[in-house]
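Translate sequence into structure tokens.
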Amino acid sequence: MSPESRTSQLLTKLANFSFSRPVLVVMVLLTIGGTFGFIASRLGFRGDFIELLPDSTREVQDLKVVQEMAGGGGYFVVRVRGDSKETRRPYAAALAKKLEEQKDLVSYVEYHFDASFFTTRALWLLSSDKLKALGEDVDARITWEKQRALPGFVDLLEEAPPPTLEEIEKKYGSQARQSEYIEGRTAPELYMFVKPTKQAGDLDFNRQILGKVTEVTASMAPQFPQIEVDFTGAYVARVEEDDVMREDLGRAGLVSTVLALTIILLSTRRITALLVVALPVALGISATFAFAYFTIGHLNPVTGFLGAILVGLGLEYGTHLAMRYWEERRQADVLPALRTTVISTFPGALTSATTNAVAFLVLLASRFDAFKQFGSIAGFGVMATVISAYVMAPAILRLAERIRPFKADKVALDADGNEKSGPRVPTSALVAIIVGITAVAAVSATYAPKASFEKDLKRLKGKSPATELDEAINDQLGIIMTPAIVAV
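Result follows.
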């Protein structure tokens, strides 16, 4: 027996079983889908862009080793505002003491330092150009003093005297901090840099320390009613990015689903079409994310949008199946229509799904881990949606027939009793469409080489309250408080 014959027999049995036991089929599949959905709900999401980089590269391995040794590469930053300077500083001291008591979360807190250390080493903070200018000013002043110490010296040129040593010290010593507290240059603010015990890549830890700092600052509010605090730093930014990405992913999936189902409803004008199309896709996507949970364990900013992508790819199988079924029902009963629909459309749907899946699975050859994960999940998802459509949709169509039997739309007939064809599209319109598409393709091909590839992952993150606050603090301090780590 040929493979085609065996496939036809299997599809016939599937159609027969869906016809005779539609309630059982739908209930079993909904139970399986619910189980997959529960498993998928445990799927984590990692918004850290470092997670997208391949672990096999030495740079990533070295970075993770150093971060593990140093306890990460950033701070949890607390900005203290309100009241007076004399109140903010005691508040910072009290808050630092409370935070450092959380040994499992906080290693230390910095909000002040020994200013004399920087004052006596101010030259270390100067650039090479300023050091050169400093030497020239000092030499000029020494020369000027020596000339005027000579007996009988007369200044015939009457040049302006070079800056005095006090003026030189004031000019070049301004780089050294005069206050021992980490405060804004112009804004009445004090900044506290909390060093957590773990890396910022651990989102659960980030939420834990954010909750604890929020709790501690809230407990101090009655004692310092005029003080206001807000938070930033890598640990806070990661939490905000994760929340925003989750919202974006959910919104994208919801919008794509609503738009797709609306188009299907408008084109078919049948409520049944929504169930025939939506339920199998939901089953396929649940199975896909359950597969992702068992194979990878989490989603990232690249794989997170697969839900919206699979909605678009998966809807076509149920749509084609339903529309073909209603065409067959105009000439046959339910069971023959189901058999003909399933047997005639499955090879084409399987070919289409396999083509899409192979296109995604090619990404498994990539060295970029995010692409590999995307390819494996998407390839599985495409096949899961097509199988779900042909296992579940026939039973839904049979149930719909029980609830509301099919009624063929009225068809306009000509004088001979034959079905009238729709209006003919003018040849000029077809030619215009072809010319327009060709022109767009030509223009696109011209501009395609000019498109650049964004390699800076920071630009992909967008803005958030934490990142904006971090930039404002950097402007006030004049430096970026991100520790440079060197492993020797």
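Note: The CA atoms of residues 315 and 470 lie 44 Å apart.
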